Amino acid sequence: MTIYRAPVEATLFIIDDVLALSRHANLPGFGEAAPDVVAAVLGEAGRFAEEVLAPLNRIGDVEGCTLHADGRVTTPAGFRDAYRRFAAGGWIGLAGDPDYGGQGLPFVLAAALNEFVTSANMAFGMYPGLAQGAVTAIARHGSQRQKRLYLPKLLSGEWAGTMNLTEPQAGTDLGLIRTRAGPNADGSYAISGSKIFISGGEHDLADNIVHLVLARIDGSPAGTKGISMFVVPKVIPADDGSLGEANRVSCGALEQKMGIHGSATCLMNYDGATGWLVGERDRGVSAMFTMMNEARLGVGIQGLALSELAYQNAAAYARERRQGRALARAGESGGAADPILVHPDIRRTLAAIKGFNIAARALALATALDADIAEKSSDDATRAAAADRLALMTPVVKGVLTDRGFDNVVAAQQVFGGHGYIAETGVEQFVRDARVAMMYEGANGIQALDLVGRKLPKDGGRAVTAFFKEVSDFVDEHRDEALAPFIGPLSQGLDDLRAATMWFMANALARPANGAAGATDYMHLFGLVALGFMWARIALAAERRIAEGDPRSERLTGDFLVGRAFMERTMPETGLRLARITAGAETLMALPEAAL
Amino acid sequence: MTIYRAPVEATLFIIDDVLALSRHANLPGFGEAAPDVVAAVLGEAGRFAEEVLAPLNRIGDVEGCTLHADGRVTTPAGFRDAYRRFAAGGWIGLAGDPDYGGQGLPFVLAAALNEFVTSANMAFGMYPGLAQGAVTAIARHGSQRQKRLYLPKLLSGEWAGTMNLTEPQAGTDLGLIRTRAGPNADGSYAISGSKIFISGGEHDLADNIVHLVLARIDGSPAGTKGISMFVVPKVIPADDGSLGEANRVSCGALEQKMGIHGSATCLMNYDGATGWLVGERDRGVSAMFTMMNEARLGVGIQGLALSELAYQNAAAYARERRQGRALARAGESGGAADPILVHPDIRRTLAAIKGFNIAARALALATALDADIAEKSSDDATRAAAADRLALMTPVVKGVLTDRGFDNVVAAQQVFGGHGYIAETGVEQFVRDARVAMMYEGANGIQALDLVGRKLPKDGGRAVTAFFKEVSDFVDEHRDEALAPFIGPLSQGLDDLRAATMWFMANALARPANGAAGATDYMHLFGLVALGFMWARIALAAERRIAEGDPRSERLTGDFLVGRAFMERTMPETGLRLARITAGAETLMALPEAAL
Questions:
Q1: Across A72-207, where does the E strand assignment appear?
Q2: CB A33 within 8 A of CB A21
Q3: Whether residue B104 sits in one domain with residue B172
Q4: Does A454 reach chain B within 8 Å, measured CB to CB?
Q5: Domain carrying residue B507
Q6: pLDDT digits (tens, 9 = 90+) for A321-363
Q7: What is the ipTM of this complex?
Q8: HSE (side-chain half, CA atoms, 13 Å) at A469
Q9: pTM score > 0.90 for this model?
Q10: In 3-state terms, what secondary structure has residue B212?
Q11: Considering only CB atoms, which chain B residues are within 8 Å of A576?
Q12: Cβ contact (<8 Å) for B439 and A449?
C-alpha cells in the first residue's frame, strides 16, 4: 500500500517566493493567476491526484491495457471514469488558449499539475500529456480550419492525441522513416506505413484520437528534409466536429513493457489512412521539434514526479520500520528497536533525494515559466532571453531530471531493504515506471548531444553566456551573506562548468568526438549547476521568510538544512564530471570494434 | 531474444596469469587443478550455462513459480530437467569436500562457475547457490552425524538447502527474531514460527530440502545472544539418508517480486517442526555469519554476472542497430546509417561496463582464492593474511559489485533506447533481476557499515594496513613502466582512500555518526581502489603476454585500452567519494525528523 501527498505548499513557495509569479502579472492570463487563485487551483489539482488518480496506480500496473480481437484497446479499471472527471474538471485545457476553450492560465501551473498527476499515476498521466503535444503542434503549425476543428476537442478532452514518429528502423534517426503519403484528389493524403511505440495509439478514454504522423510525400527527398507532418484522426470528423466514418488506422499490437502498464503502447498500422498536411510540406521534422521542447520538459517532470513519490514512501517507511538502535543508544541493553530514520546512512539517502526534488521542481517550474514568457511577453528582448533559456535548459531538464530521478527511485527502494523488491510494497513499480523517462522522447544521450552540439554553440553561445552571467551575478551579490554554504559549492560548480565549456571550445571544434564523448557528463555538470543555483535562490527566499517570522518557518528551516546537505554531498560531483569530460575521446575512439 | 557467451578465455587469463593459480599447487585439491584441467572444467561449465541454462532464462521470468493448493511449489518449465543435469554433472559439489562426495577442486573455480550460471539464468542459480550455504554451515558447525547425513546429499544435489533468517519484524536486526525452539525429549527441538523471503523454501527440484533456521530456544536471552541455528529437513531422513515422514514445515505463500521470478521466494511456516541444533546453543547468529561471507561473495558475483550479461547484449545491439552517422561522415549526403557502436557516447557506455566487468571478475576470483587459501594453507601466516583479506574484501565485493553491476545493467539497457523497455528485447528482465542483489544477504548499506564499523578497526586495522601496503608496493614497483596510465589513477585513488581512513580515525571515533554517514561512500572508494588495483595487475600480465607475442595479443591489447578508459573515466570518482566522506554527519544529524 503506497501513499502520495501532492507537495502543494512546497510548489506554491517556489511559484510565489522563488519565481515570484506576481512580477509577471502583465502577461496574458497571469493577471488571473493571483496567489490565492494559484493556491486554489493547485490545491484542487493535488486533491484530484491524491484521491482519484493515486488509488488507480497499482491497479493500472497489475491490469495493464488489453487489445481485443476487434481492435479495441481497453484501459485498466477506473481509468475511463477518472479521465472523464479529469477532462470535466478542465484540467486538460488548464493552460490552453481561451479562444479554443482553454482556461488560459500560465503554463507553469500546467507543469505543476503535471508533476502531481504523474506522481499519482504516471501511466494515466500519459494520455492527457499526449493531447498536449497534439495541441501545441496544431496551434503552431495547423491551418485555421485545423485549429477550429481540433483544438477545442483536444482541450476539452473529448478527443485525445498522439505523436507518431518512430518506426522499427527509425528511432533517433527520423531520416529513415518509410511511412508514405500519397496525394488524394481533394488535397488530403493517403498515409501508409507502420509506427511503433505509440503511446495512447488506441484506447477507450475519448471519442476520437488525433494522430500526428510523420511521413514522406511521394517524390520528396530522402532523409529528414523530405518528411512532412500530417493530422490523421481515428474517426474522420465533419467540419462541425461531428464524427463520421472510421479512418484506415488501427492498433496492430500492444507492447509488453517493463512498466507504465496502464499506458497503451501501440504498434499502429496506417493502411491508406486519410491525413491532412500540418504546416509546410517537407518541414515535418522541424515542426515536430517545436513541440518536442514542451514534451521533453514534461518528461523531465516525470523524473521528478517519480522521485517525489518514491521519496514520500521511503520516508514514511523509515519512520515506521524499527530495526537496530541509534548510535547514541549503542551501549544500552534491552529496549525497543529504533525507527531506521535515526541511522545516518538512511538520512543520507533521504536527504539526497529530497534535496534533489526541491531543486528539480524549482528548475522545472522556472523553465515552464520561461516557456510562458517566451510565448507571451510583449517585450522582444524579454521574449528572446526566455526563449534562449528555454531552449538551453530543455535537454538539461529532460536528461538530468530523468537520470537522477531514476537513481533516486532506486535509492528510495533500497530504504525498504528486501521488502522493496516485493510487488505488494509498491515501490518496485515506481522503479519500473520511472525507467522509461530516460529512454523515450529522445534517449538521454541524445539530450546531451542536443545540449552540446546544438544549444551551446547556438547564436555564438548567447544562451549559455547569459546563464553563466546570471549565476555569476547571483554568486557575487550574495557572497557575504548567510548563504555561504550555498554560494561556495555553487561557485565551484560554475567554475567547473566554465572550465568544461572552455575545454570543449579548445578541443571539440577540431575533434568533434571530444564533444560527443563528454556530452553526457557535460549535461550532468550543467544540471548540477542549475540545481545548485536553484537551491541558492530557494535558500535566499527561505531566509527572508524566516527572518520575517513567517508561519512556515519551521518547514523552511528544515528545507534549508536539506539544501545544505545537497550542496555538501551532491554538488562535489561537478569536479568528477569535469575530470571525465577532459579525459577526452582518444582512448574511446582508439578501441578497435572487436574490443567492445 | 538475448544472447550469452560465457567469458571462459577471459576467466582463464585471470586465473592463470593474474592470480597465477599454479603458484598454489601445494594446497589440497590445487594439484589436480592444472591449467588444462581448469580450462576443460570452465569450458564445460560455460557450455552448460550457454546451452542448458540460458535458454530457460526468459521462460523462468514469464512463467515464474506456482504454489499449488496442496502446498507443492513447481518451478518453471525446464528447470527440473536442467537441475537434474546440473547435479549429475557434479557441478554442485565442484569445490566440495571429497570425504563427502565433493570434487575437491579449488573454490575459485566454483566462483567462476557461479558467474557463468548466474549470467545464464540468475533465478536458476539461486537453488544450487543456497545448497552451498547449507553445506558451509553444516561443514563448519555441524556434528559428525549431521555432516555424514546431510553433506553427501547436498553436494550431490539430491537434496537442496535454504537459509531461514528473516521474519516480518526481523530483517537486519536478527535480535528481534521470534521463532521459538522448544526442547523435545530425544534431544531434538520443536521449531515454531514464520520466516519470510526464503529463497528455495519449497520447490520440485530435489527430493528433500534442508532448512537452516535461526530460532530462540525457550529460556534463552533476548537479543542476538539468544539465537540458535537448527537444521530442519523438509522430510525427516533416517540415519542412512532414506526419507521418512514429512516434517511440520510448509510454504504458506510465494512472494510476487520485481524479478528472479524463477526463484521461489517463500513464506515458510514452522508448526512444531522437528529440528536439530547445529553448533552451540545461543551462538546461531555467529554461526550464520561464518557462512555469510561465502554467500555475500556469491551475491557480489551476481552483480558482475548480470553486468556481463547485459554488456554482451548491449554490445551486440550496438553492432547491429543502425541510426545516424559517424562524426567522420557528418558531411556526407546519402549512404546508409552507421551502427551505433561508432558513436562516442555509446563507446563510453560500453567501455565503462566492460572495464568494470574485467576488474570485478578479477576481484571476485582473487577473493575466492583467498577463501581457498584461508581454509587450506598449511602455513599459519599465509592463512591468516588470506583470512584478513577475505573478511575485508567480502563487504566490498558484495556492496560494490552489486551497486555498480546494477548501474551497468541500467546503462546497457539505455543502449537499446526505447527498445530496451520492451519485455521481448529481454534486457529489462536483467534490470529487474539484478536489482535484488543490492538488497538481500544484507542490504548494501549494511555491507558498508560492516566494512567501516567492523572490518576496518579489527585487530588494530591489520587487514586494511596490509591492503594499503600491498597496493602501495605495487605502485612503487611499477611506477616507471608502460603501466603509467594505470599507476597514476591508482596511486591517486590510494591517496584518497588513505585520506578517508585517516579522516575516520580523527572524526568517527569521537562521533560515530561521521563513520556511519560516510560508510557507503567509503565502501565505494575502497571498491574503486580494489578494482583499479586489479586493472593494474591485469595490465601488467597483459603487457607481459603481448611482449611474448602471445596469440591472444590482439584481444589483450583491446582489453588494455578498455582498462585505460576505466582508469581515465571511472577512477576519478575516488575524489568525489572522499569529498562526501569528509562532509561528515553534522548537517544530516541536525535535520529534524519532520524535515525528512
A1: 73-74, 159-164, 180-183, 189-199
A2: yes
A3: no
A4: no
A5: 462-589
A6: 999 999 888 877 667 899 999 999 999 999 999 999 999 999 9
A7: 0.97
A8: 8
A9: yes
A10: strand
A11: 572-573, 575-576
A12: no
